[in-house]
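Many introductory courses stop at the sequence. We go one step further.
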Amino acid sequence: MPAEPDRGAVDGHTAVPVDDGLLTVRAAEGDEDAFEVLVHRYGPRMLRLATRLLGSVSEAEDAVQEGFVSAWRGLPEFRGEAGFGTWIHRIVTNRCLNALRARRPVTDLDAVPEPAAPEHRASPARAAESRATAEALNVAMAGLSSEQRVCWVLREVEGVPYETIADTVGISQEAVRARVFRARRCLTEAMAAWR
């Protein structure tokens, strides 16, 4: 059975990872293999981000797929002022933000993903408490505005700098800080009983 080609190699013959800039240029010229490497490189990270933002794996998969399709179509106009990773991050975040804005204000609890299974060593009481805490956090997050949720997840979960969030969402850094602050305050109040 032949070895699978390195995901960083465009031609499948070299084991040296190819830099995003070169891959982006080649993809913009129509090289589907170069774009496939970028999808494999950034797809899992974008799916995790979209799932955190949307709370639904199926919606997240759609947002990521639409984001990569949009990136493929937009590559010929891509100026490269930011790296491909920053660019696809912005595209996927905006897809998620649009999906959040299009939702009805009330989130169906069936659409909230199940929390991860507790470790087998955890007691049933601890497992029940963990599930209840996760459910309470999901409900509290559903109470945030879509703008607050996106800014909070990008900052607190993903660790994205304020400046990058501002560029991604298209608002000032001060507005990002204000949204993150309000989201923190709302979540702290909603989770007060769980401290």
